[in-house]
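In line with agreed milestones, the collection of sequences with tokenised folds has grown. A representative record is reproduced below.
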Amino acid sequence: MVKPALAASRAVRVVDFLAVHPGRPFSLTEIAGALRINAASTLSVLMALTDSGYVVRHPLHKTYTLGAALVAVGQAALVQHPLLQAAQDELALLAGELEAQCVASVLMGNELVAVVAEGRARRTEVGARVGTRLPFSAPFGAPFAAYGDDALRRRWLQRSHGVTTADRALRLEQALAEVAERGYEAGPQNETRQQLRRALETLADDPGNAASRAEIERLLDDLADRFVTVNLDLDEVVAVANVTAPVFTPAGEVVMILTANGFVAPLTGAAAVDVGERLRASADMMAARTFGGAAPRRPRQRDREQRIPTARS
């Protein structure tokens, strides 16, 4: 198996690091320290990025920020991936309507990456930013697993560093079945989620921090052990952290997920259902706009039952 060139991997890490801190300048020492790359190698990468215009070096402060050349790259990506432009337009409207932060994320390897973020989270300590990465692991990205094939579902159920017990696997499979039945996920708010958000924020500032990575693994195990979807059947106030709906291609594949979180006030079960249905409508509008007006094919119930084991399986 061919391994990526070390210099190329380091350049990607530098750009990713600067991208999650837009407008914030960093010195060579700060970048090298955060990424755990020696200063000489970091300088070499920064020089190449600066020469290409992807990074700008301040002449007096000797700090680095993203360069204007990346604007052209971003515009090219919007042309290449029209779903991103559709997400920007739709989520900007949706964030104001819901008085919440609305985020579009895609699955890249073993991570969920936020590619659009509109509005702000009112009732959570940390909101998502473009470039924010979450592990593709329970409870995050459930719609991808709920509608995905067996291999994708196994990736979500069984984390590489965690041990999935029979009880946990059954509970997670039941949660996925509920997500597929509703067409969206309603995740519960709890202190562990808040702790994980803070740990991820720390890791974004210091990607090489081994202690933060270990803490994230512990918190993910805790969340997976306790993950259930929120019961929305009763019209009473429920602790909803987020509502997440999938964007389908015409073939019925999930290509993106839309998440609303940080609501201005706690939601009743009925209000959370309304948010879920509103997200589904936005997802369908984006899909129709992107795929030439073709209506997305939602997997039929029979498809879902074939993909997702039941409690009796």
Summary: The chain has two domains: 6-71, 81-307. The first helix runs from residue 6 to 19. The two ends are 37 Å apart (CA to CA). Residues 96 and 119 are 7 Å apart (CA to CA).
